[in-house]
Amino acid sequence: MTLQVDPIDRKLLRLLQTDSRKSVQELGDLVGLSASACHRRLKALEERGLIEGYRAILSAERLGYSMQFFIEVGLTSQSETALEAFEAAVQDIPEVLECHLMAGQSDYILRVVCQDHDDFERLHRRLSARLPGVARIHSNMSIRTVKVRTGLPI
User: Fold this and answer.
1) So where are the chain's domains?
2) What is the pLDDT of residue 50?
3) Which residues contact 29 (CB under 8 A, 6 or more apart)?
4) DSSP letter string, 75-106
5) Keyword set for this entry (predicted)?
6) Are the CB atoms for 10 and 143 separated by under 8 Å?
7) Whole-number Å distance between alpha carbons of 21 and 101
8) In the chain, where do the E strands start and end?
């Protein structure tokens, strides 16, 4: 369901995607609203579900996670029970940053981070042994990140 967004809301959303640390006063000044009017708009955007949260983007490499993998997972069954069991189990693995249910060759694609090759081997064994219904795993190592965009093109 697409919600209607006016030009001021769009500008607020673009500004927040760029820097969510700006104060309500700063945001208001940039979009031509008072701080109180800007605050009301932000609350309305949050209540409508257009703003899901605010977060810091951390440096994986500086925190020791120098390796990133995209892991394709095929399950033995695509039943609702099998999918739910897999999805519940993957929630408990902190190295899994993203998990996407796919249409196509793989049932899921996981984006994971690891500190080194040994860390990846431990994670790979953990994925193979602990995730229910796994028939096959195919791992792809990211050599270099070319583009990351956390914001949407609004």
Assistant:
1) 7-47, 67-141
2) 95
3) none
4) ES--SHHHHHHHHHHHTT-TTEEEEEE-SSS-
5) DNA-binding, Transcription, Transcription regulation
6) no
7) 32
8) 67-75, 96-101, 108-114, 134-141
| Domain 67-141 top-level CATH class | alpha beta
Residue 126 has pLDDT above 90, yes or no: no
138, 131 contact by CB (below 8 A): no
pTM of this prediction?
A: 0.85
Per-residue pLDDT tens for 5-29? 999 999 999 999 999 999 999 999 9
Task: Show the tokens assigned to 137.
Answer: 């795993």
Which pair of structure tokens corresponds to residue 117?
A: 């090759």
Give the per-residue pLDDT at 86: 96
- Residue 141: count other Cβ atoms within 10 Å of its Cβ: 12
